[in-house]
Amino acid sequence: MRGPDPRVVLGLHRSRHERRLLTGALDLGVTALDTSTNYLGFRSHHVLARTAGDLLPKFTVSTKVGYFPGPDGAEHSLDPPRLNSAVEEAAKDLGREPDLVFLHNPERSLREAVPHHKDVLAAACAALHDAKEKGLCGAWGVASWDPSPVLSLVDPTVPRPSVLMVRAGLLVGARTLDAADNLINAWNLGCGEVWGMSPFGGSTSASVWGRLDPRLFLQDSGRFSRVQAAFGVAYHLPRVGSIAVGTDEPTHLGELVGALAGQVEERTVQEYRKLLRDRSPRHSA
Prior knowledge:
- By secondary structure, the protein is an alpha/beta fold.
- Helix content is 39%, strand content 16%.
- Strands 1-2-3-6-7-8-9-10 form an eight-stranded parallel barrel, surrounded by four helices. The chain has a two-stranded antiparallel ribbon with strand order 4-5.
- Strand 1 (8-11), helix 1 (19-27) and strand 2 (32-34) form a beta-alpha-beta unit.
């Protein structure tokens, strides 16, 4: 078993939640687990507790609140009482308090909250802060697929999260990268307080990875696969300390852990970001 490495977080989005994946992760030193109340058809917490309850104490567990079962499928809400109840239920269903609870994609509801959107965000963040103070979770954060709407609302009235999770990697557009950087700065978050997600844009088998060779960004490109290189570069677009990545195969997870040994050429990353801005003057995502 390898020593723990917090730079890789096993994400359970679209995962089958199989026990072999969790034991394989532990063998690789991946001891951070990320899920959400709405994963696996709102059954993620129950299934984890049932199939791997004895393993969960070996992980730091993060989850997300903000999506709720609705008559027409999942619905989003930033209502503080609903968020508070969701955190309480997460602890109950997991059989333990989560180490970290994210406010999940707050921009979904903020777009509908004009003109009171700033108050809505502040109240939602305060609800998670209160949950942390009550001992319902170890810390709280914000996970945002599109941070632009959140960025425009940040001021001293909005509580500061402990962790921010944003999209990371070569497929993230210039506008989203810049918004993430600006939000990180607005909340004065260090690299270790920022997580990336979706480093492959959804799939390593997408055709783009056959056309793009991310090994161009590495100092020693011959040692790594394209998948490994794309994963390594994702830590720099934007700069994050950890990345939540989903898989159902321990061998694939092991390949990604191996990618951490790669050295990324920072100058090439900066040239790439300039190219993104030049080709997308309106900073489209």
